[in-house]
Specification:
Layout lengths: L4 H10 L6 H22 L29 H4 L6 E2 L2 E2 L7
Helix pairs in contact: 1-2
Length: about 90
């Protein structure tokens, strides 16, 4: 599948890119090469190949979330300003 200069200009307009003449010619050639390679890949028989999201088997290695008591009792003694169960910090948003 060949890509035309008009296609490159259309895509550049959608991407809000300003291209000079040299870049337009270079991208027309490069995108044409990419599309040629994709057409070669489309010739492969993938009928018996299952769709995958990743090439390797991935399993979740994280532990299950377990609700537990907060260890705030020890932290309140280290905080410079702690009152009524809250840590007070300097104001950062004005």
């Amino acid at each position: 599948m060949a890509i035309s200069r008009a296609d490159v200009l259309h895509v550049s307009r959608l991407a809000r890119l300003q291209l000079n003449e040299g870049e337009i010619e270079k991208l027309t050639s490069q995108l044409g090469s990419i599309l040629e390679y994709i057409s070669i890949l489309n010739e492969l028989d993938t009928e018996d190949v299952p769709p995958t999201a990743h090439v390797l088997e991935i399993t979740n290695v994280f532990r299950d979330d377990v609700v537990s008591a907060s260890p705030i009792e020890g932290m309140e003694q280290m905080a410079p300003d702690f009152s009524a169960g809250h840590f007070r910090v300097p104001k950062v948003i004005e």
